[in-house]
Write a structure and sequence with these properties.
Its EC number is 3.5.4.2. Its cofactor is Zn(2+). This protein has 358 residues and is an alpha/beta fold. It has a single domain, classed as TIM Barrel (Alpha-Beta Barrel). 53% of the residues lie in helices and 13% in strands. Strand 5, helix 11 and strand 6 form a beta-alpha-beta unit. It is globular, with a radius of gyration of 19 Å. The structure holds adenine and zinc ion.
Amino acid sequence: MTVGYECSGHIRDFLHELPKCEHHVHLEGTLGPDLLFPLAERNCISFPNGFPTSVEELEKRYKKFSDLQDFLNHYYIGMSVLIKEQDFFDLAYSYFEKAEKDGLWHSEVFFDPQGHVERGIPIEIVINGFKKACEKAEKELGITTKLIMCLLRHLPSEDGLLTIKSVNTYYEKGWIHGLGLDSSEKPFPPELFENCYSFLKKNFPNIQLTAHAGEEGGPSYVSNSLDLLKVTRIDHGINSIKDEKLMERLANEKILLSICPLSNVKLQVVENVGQLPIAEFIKYGVSFSINSDDPAYFGGYILDNYIAVHESFGFDLETWCLIARNSINGSWCDEKRKLEMLNAVDKVFEKYEKLLSN
Ligand SMILES: Nc1ncnc2[nH]cnc12
Ligand SMILES: [Zn+2]
């Protein structure tokens, strides 16, 4: 892969210090080989025949996936080592620690309860572990957090509806802030889940809605998510570029796309980050945030994704601050927190404008 721009020295420090918000990270996707094997041992879990047996072998296997489904097959095996509340806590907290070191200020994290409940893990174990990690991250790392529950689209929508009903009390308590939709995209279009989204919105009008769309699926997956699921955010959404009217709509309706550059390369959606329509999004006025998706599988956390974008596009400080502000404004945190982050962006800009002009 040719890298067009260097990202070292002041510009790297600038990207590090720039207040970053993450809107698209699956907590189960932060489970790397280094944690997977100890957890498997701790919980006496064995893997299917042919599954790598060492950290090195597994890292090698994660170097390349043929497509989304190839990755998901490993992702579901990986999560089978999560059994106890402590496991869920450890997983989430170690992600928050890593991301905080990358300069993360605000994190909206996905989790896949159906992937655990179908293995016999009570949903309370999953949510309590993740919630406690969020609380500790807020207190000790100063990160603000939101939990977003995702439905697995390869499972029937009836199962999704039961899952939503089973977490009623957590929505009431405000522990879960939003609903998302993930897993195998193309065979399971958004319209299959209209009943789940409308039920939740009717019962909890303040709930935030998002869905994976336009990662491998075409632009109709994006527009149907907007029209039928009534989402206000799209996870990935990169195939929106194939439909000019949709691009204009995304800009007009201020829909945030949570894009995941290193993920798109690893899952062979594009050959390299430079092929992503990032410059076009800016030209059309489509807001996006830059995210890590499943960092333990795709070779990089949030800062690595920012760096990869810089290496391909070489944006100036103004453009990077625009990206940071759009990402803050598209967050589901309160206005006070947004203002804090926006002010911090101005300060970082002033500092590096001086440094880079010297
Ligand atoms: N990139 C992705 N797309 C769809 N489902 C996912 N689950 C975890 N990562 C995902
Ligand atoms: Zn994702």
